[in-house]
Amino acid sequence: MLHSKGRSTGGLPSKTLPSIKYTKKVEITENRVIMLPDVSFQGAGKGYYMFVERVARQESPMMQIAVIGAGLSGLATTIALMKRFHQPFEAWLIDAQDAPGSFGNGPAGRALTSEPARDLSVIPDRPDDFADWLKSSLLADGPIASLRGPQDLHVPRALFRDYVMARFSEALSLRKDIRIRTFRGEVRDAIPQNDRVRLRFREGDRAEFDHVFIATGFGAAQREADSWREAHAAADRLSQCEDPPALTLLGNGPRFAALLLDLRASGYAGPIHIRAATGSLPQPHGRGHDRASFGPPPASRSLRDAFHYIRRECRTAENREPGQWQSVVDAASLRLSAVWRNLPQKERNHYRRHLLHLHRHFSTRIARDTHRRLVAELETGRTQFVSSRLPAGPEENTVDCRETPSASVLARLLGVDLDLLSVNDSGSLLVEGNPLLGLSLVGTAASSLRPGPFVFAETVRQAYRAVLDMQRHTFALASRS
Fold it and tell me: I need a labelling partner for 283 at 20 to 30 A (CA). Which of 8, 88, 216, 332 fits?
């Protein structure tokens, strides 16, 4: 139970979420009044409904589960719970700012997905689910479907949001034995206590759960909505200047690419500087890596041997598919999970400190059309890379749109030494090799501790593995009792 202090814990104001209709209801529990949102989602020409049920006055017999993060990772995890966890439960979707699905709102919703439709299914055993949804919902009998098919399309993120929420609603409609709640609050720490996990929020509230999934994406310090809002505010301010200074963007991932192109499409003509450690653009997608094959990974427990293996296999694969090095790197990422299992903690820490950033850079992909437009923008001279060592300009003219998940933020949340922390294939968090019971890590947060592949399909696979692992642990506890 959350110990409320009588203030509202509802979602964001409706004016910031145009695709969500809010109504308010009052719930009285233990002489406390809490305002909760009833949320009705509309999208893709059909209505679907997500509800927030009233909290019972007594302790609920249902299993209590928290999902920290209401973005794509959190929604994928909640869908996996509804599909694969076969016990009654109450799930809390907790986010510091955003309501579920808000990643597709405003200018960010107009940006194209960084991955093609073939890689964006929320159902792992139906990899073409999003492409099929596009075909049946929007492209049926149309020229795109007949000439090309939707698998390779990069669509507006608002459209992808509609698909995710449609699958969320369908999964929810089939489970009459669960409750889904939303809560807006910033989690300060997550501490296992006996067989439960205690969450403490910034406001001082506390709640205890049987299991907690951490699916925070890129963390509270690098929120996507803040990047878009700050960039457009800075552009509006600088447009009023007769000789405006440069607007500086920090980062060079898909968010930076979408934000830069949106600023230009909105009419901003002032100079833009890009400050990034790599000093280069994110790479476009290749043709796909289905045909790439790799030999068995080394049994060595050395990071050096592991990367010699990856380089050797990449060279062999690239010779088979000349000019498709992006696809080869993507395929190599799939092999790193197998290599990772053999590495001791010391070697894993070395990778995290010195190689993770470089690996992420060469693994990040954007739509080929987006890459072409970025190259054309750089050729105009209005936008240019500058040294990452140069001092930043005035803070109000600098926008942080980096997309690097922070392992240190995760370590502070858990109250453990970062060098002792790791995550296994099932998403279980480990300290010195011992699991933190009741805690799982999903999505880009997990990639701050281990190598990729850094793709949405891997986030979905992580979510389902984590849910199945939690189910096995729950059954084991029930058997012992």
Answer: 216
The whole-angstrom separation of Cα 99 and Cα 409 is 22
Task: Write out the two tokens for 22.
Answer: 């809010």
Please state, in angstroms and rounded to a whole number, the distance separating the CA atoms of residues 186 and 175: 28
Q: Write the DSSP assignment of 132-144 as a string of letters.
A: HHHHHHT-TTSHH
With contact defined as beta carbons under 8 Å apart, do 288 and 262 qualify?
no
Q: 274-291 b/e with 16+ CB inside 10 Å = b?
A: bbbbbeebbbbbbebbee
Query: pLDDT digit string (tens) for 128-154?
Result: 999 999 988 776 555 554 445 688 889
Residues 6 or more apart whose CB falls under 8 angstroms from that of 400 comprise 222, 227, 230, 250, 251
For every residue of 51-63, DSSP letters joined together read: --PPPPSSPPSSE
- Give the rounded percent of residues in the chain with a pLDDT score beyond 90: 36
Q: How far, in Å, CA of 344 to CA of 379, rounded?
A: 46
* CA–CA dist 318, 306 (Å, integer): 18
CA pair distance 87, 478, nearest whole angstrom:
12
Sign of CA pseudo-dihedral 82, 88, 89, 90 = positive
pLDDT per residue as tens digits for the range 37-68: 333 333 333 333 333 333 333 345 789 999 99
Counting Cα atoms < 13 Å in the Cβ hemisphere of 160 gives: 28
**Which stretches of 85-137 are DSSP H helices?**
106-110, 129-137
- Residue 222's pLDDT is 55
Q: What are phi and psi of 365, to 5 degrees?
A: -130, 150
φ, ψ of residue 164 in degrees (nearest 5):
-60, -45
Alpha helices in 72-142 (DSSP H): 72-84, 106-110, 129-137
Cβ distance 82 to 175 under 8 Å?
Answer: yes
Going from the C-alpha of 440 to that of each of 287, 426, 462, the distances in angstroms are 33, 8, 10
What single-letter amino acid sits at 447? Answer: S
Phi first, then psi: give them for residue 117, nearest 5 degrees: -60, -30
User: What stretches of 348-474 adopt beta strand conformation (E)?
Assistant: 365-366, 383-386, 398-400, 421-423, 428-431, 434-441
Cα distance from N-terminal residue to C-terminal residue, the chain: 24
Beta-strand ranges (E) seen in 307-392 are 365-366, 383-386
Q: Are strands 63-68 and 211-214 parallel, antiparallel or unpaired?
A: parallel
In 81-195, DSSP assigns E strands to 89-95, 178-184, 187-193
**Average pLDDT, integer, range 455-462:** 91
pTM for this entry: 0.82
